[in-house]
Amino acid sequence: MTATMTDTPPPAAPKADTATRSGRSLGQILMIVAGALLLVAAVRVISGSDQLTSEGQVSAALSLAVPIGLAGLWSERSGVVNIGLEGMMILGTFGAGWIGWQSSPWLGLLCGVGFGVLGGLLHAVATVTFGVDHIVSGVAINLLALGTTQYLAKLFFVDGKAEEAGGNPKQSPPVDSLPTFDVPGLSSGLHSIENHHWFLISDIAGILGGLFTDLSIVTVLAVVLFVGSWWLLWRTAFGLRLRSCGENPIAAESLGVNVYKYKYMAVAVSGGLAGLGGAFLALVTSHTYLEGQTGGRGYIGLAAMIFGNWRPGGLAMGAGLFGYSDALQLRNGGETVHALLLLLFVLLLAMAGWKLYKKAHWQGGISLMVAAGVLVWYLVTDEVPSDFVGATPYVVTLLVLSLSAQRLRMPKADGMRYRKGQGK
Predict the structure, then answer these.
(1) Looking at residue 52, what DSSP letter applies?
(2) Which is it for strands 215-216 and 180-181: parallel, antiparallel or unpaired?
(3) The whole model's pTM is what?
């Protein structure tokens, strides 16, 4: 009996369950993009709203998406919830406007990033070193940044050369523009195709034209940082160690990872990226620091990251969606936003069909009723009331988050208090 038990091989280790991975293949992503293009092109033709895929619309959407991209990803992947993104972005707008008008916009850009890093380090000291609740620390930074910049604006912008140059307690003097450029030949050719208003072909031309026309240097920098962040976090040993701090810091420390160091670096980078977003608003969007110009984009960036499932690709999609809807209401008003009702009707109808197919009759029925209400709204009106137009990007963000909530997976140790030495 003993010999039999000894000779019996140990049970094989269970295979890793790869079905739960949230990533999609390249083919699936291309199919989703193609389906979205076809749907938007059809809505453009039916509604007659050519601005939906125009070059100017896409260019504005890209500019509005830059300030909310990537800022929270580094911090959250290291296990630190960064509600303070809004405050770090506010610091970035002030730093860029303050230094930018006195010297050059390039120094203003660096100062905006530096001010954001300072906000990130303050958040790291509170949460990592002293173990303060991450939400409490983030809210405190938002309030502190708002109050500090208001005080400094009254101190530096209301007298002397600043006042003569157009400064006041709520804004800095104008800042010189950072350079922009077009792709020679390609921009004009795409614009010509767009003006024909062909189905799908002109839509693709308008989208590509917006990506290659009137590009800011900061936009290109943001794209480089996006790709660099993806490579560092998912393709290097450094990124593996940093992400391990957000998944299981105790195990990471037991393997020799300095968890505090990685968390500090991640939150500082997160603050710097938020400061870059704020500097973009001050130097590219408005060419001046304005009190309240962030408009809650730090919170929207956090929502975009959640929608993106804490991954760079999904975050870029979330930021692009918010930027698109924000540009739509800023540039075109109620008539073009009205076309989104038809798009929303189609999406709700598709979701209702999917829920009914999955035997979720209650949810499918609610989706059908809401879709019918949206269709009636579209048919009996010509434009969305101005009171609702300004809320378009926030409503779109809430709808997308509610629809994607079931597939989300945050880092396991995100927001958890960690004390040095737990892994020993």
Answers:
(1) G
(2) antiparallel
(3) 0.86
SS3 content of the chain, % helix, strand, coil (to 5): 70, 0, 25
Q: What is the SS3 assignment for 185-220?
A: CHHHHHHHHHCCCCCCHHHHHHHHHHHHCCEEHHHH
Q: Provide the total of helices (H) and of strands (E) in the chain, helices listed first.
A: 20, 2
The partner residues of 180 in beta bridges, in order of sequence, read 216
Tens digit of each residue's pLDDT (9 = 90 or more) over 323-365: 888 887 777 666 778 888 888 888 888 888 888 888 888 888 9
What kind and span of H or E run contains 83?
none
What backbone torsions phi and psi does residue 52 show, to the nearest 5 degrees? -60, -35
**266 and 118 in contact (C-beta within 8 Å)?**
no
Q: How far apart are CA 298 and CA 349, in angstroms?
A: 32
Q: How far is CA 35 from CA 29, 40, 363, in A?
A: 10, 9, 24
DSSP 82: -
Predicted confidence (pLDDT) per residue in 244-280, tens digit: 999 999 999 999 999 999 999 999 999 999 999 999 9
Q: What is the DSSP letter of 167?
A: -
Task: Give Cα 28 distance to the centre of its chain.
Answer: 22
pLDDT category, 122, cuts 50, 70, 90?
A: very high
Contact 194, 38 (CB under 8 A): no
Helices (H), 66-104: 73-77, 85-102
Instruction: Please state, in angstroms and rounded to a whole number, the distance separating the CA atoms of residues 168 and 187.
Output: 39
Q: What is the dihedral of CA 199, 205, 208, 209, to 10 degrees?
A: -130
Which residues 6+ apart lie within 8 Å of 408 measured at CB?
A: 306, 309
Question: Which of 139-148, 177-186, 290-299 ranks highest by mean pLDDT?
Answer: 139-148
Q: Which two tokens stand for residue 131?
A: 């173990």
Among residues 208, 210, 396, 230, the alpha carbon closest in space to that of 313 is found at 230
- DSSP letter string, 253-316: HHTT--HHHHHHHHHHHHHHHHHHHHHHIIIIISSS-BTTTTTTHHHHHHHHHHHTTTSHHHHH
Q: How far apart are the first and last CA of the chain?
A: 41
